[in-house]
Amino acid sequence: MSQILDIAGHFQLGSKAISAERYGCGHINDTFRLETESGKNYILQRINTSIFRDAEALMENVVSVTDFLKKKIISAGGDPERETLSVVPTIQGDSMYREGEECWRVYTFIEGAVTLQTCESQEQFYASASAFGHFQKLLADFPAGSLHESIPDFHNTKLRYGAFEAAVAADVCKRAASVAEEIAFVRSRKEFASVLVDMQESGELPLRVTHNDTKLNNVLFDGESGLPLAVVDLDTVMPGLSINDFGDSIRFGATHAAEDEQDLDKVNFDIDLFECYTKGFLGECGALMTDMEKKMLPVGAMMMTFECGMRFLTDYLSGDTYFKIHREGHNLDRCRTQFKLVSDMEKARDRMDEIVKKYC
Ligand SMILES: Nc1ncnc2c1ncn2[C@@H]1O[C@H](COP(=O)(O)OP(=O)(O)O)[C@@H](O)[C@H]1O
Ligand SMILES: [Mg+2]
Fold first, then answer.
1. What residue ranges define each of the domains in the chain, with the CATH number in brackets?
2. What pTM did the predictor assign?
3. CB under 5 Å of ion ligand 2: residues
4. Ligand 1 center to residue 308 CA distance, Å?
5. Bridge partners of 269?
6. 51 pLDDT band (50/70/90 cuts)?
7. Which of 134, 137, 240, 314 could serve as a FRET partner for 208 with CA atoms 20 to 30 Å apart?
8. Residues lining ligand 1, CB < 6 A?
9. Angle at CA 211, nearest 5°, toward 209 and 212?
10. Which residues fall within 8 angstroms of residue 191, CB to CB, at 6 or more apart?
11. Which of 4, 315, 306 is closest to 172 using CA atoms?
């Protein structure tokens, strides 16, 4: 850990870092908790630069969003040190420290908070919906277009459809014939794939600040009250569509099956969980969303699930080069769970629309 303490020495910590330990269960960055002589704690992270190629741009996003959030939190009478991340500058005054290929950053440690790894109750799912809805609400008047796209075309489903067709045409592993049914599933939704991208381009849906990793373990809960405290992990903050953040939460949260479940009878879209998330999300930011955004929430859920399944299928056809696999056909299994959920959502569309109306 001495290398970690050396790195810590490049930041304005107020006093010397005396210990460092690995912290949390994140899968992207390397996270350490630092303790200093004064007793103040910090989070030190090595940014995963193989995923985030432009760490400087990423940190510009994090700084501008957290500065904005702090002002909003103060004007609402909240605690800006606990309700959002606080970037600690380097001795030189930069937002990160670069050593060769490695990029490091420090946040103050939010004390008295707990992180939940998996959603064990409807209440927890509701709480995460409130947290991400609140995040949307606070950032509703942030100039989203000024942010960098930390992963370009992340939810450009139209482009991803093009990548899928290219993978079918190349068929490098000669797998296309064996997945004719899945390929047909995607092709019959070709027009659907463009719907949200087109609506954003035409201005029918506004550009918003999106989080793009709306998992439960990216929300810190207050250890005493149990209420959501802060949204963390702002690496994938980008301009995008609010309904895609909502949709991705529904994709992985409104079902009881694992993403790679092989028994599709166990993979079902749970409309009660959809209702629970919709209630929590709209309860926070419903008043700030446009009527069109609210109307399209169910489409956001279907689009994110469809896009994800299509990406798994594209990777399966391309020889599993992007998503790590742990068994033969893993990406195909993942693709099938997503398509099962898309089919369920298509059947439940009227009910989803009714639920959204109920909470508008
Ligand atoms: N400022 C902070 N204060 C306290 N805990 C934090 C802070 N930032 C992150 N964490 C904890 O560290 C975990 C990993 O951090 P995160 O930024 O989400 O990394 P990853 O991108 O690898 O998921 C989080 O789930 C959270 O539990
Ligand atoms: Mg995380």
1. 2-111 (3.30.200.20), 122-358 (3.90.1200.10)
2. 0.95
3. 26, 218, 233
4. 24
5. 255
6. confident
7. 314
8. 23-24, 26-29, 31, 43, 85, 107, 109-110, 113, 115, 217-218, 232-233, 235
9. 120
10. none
11. 315
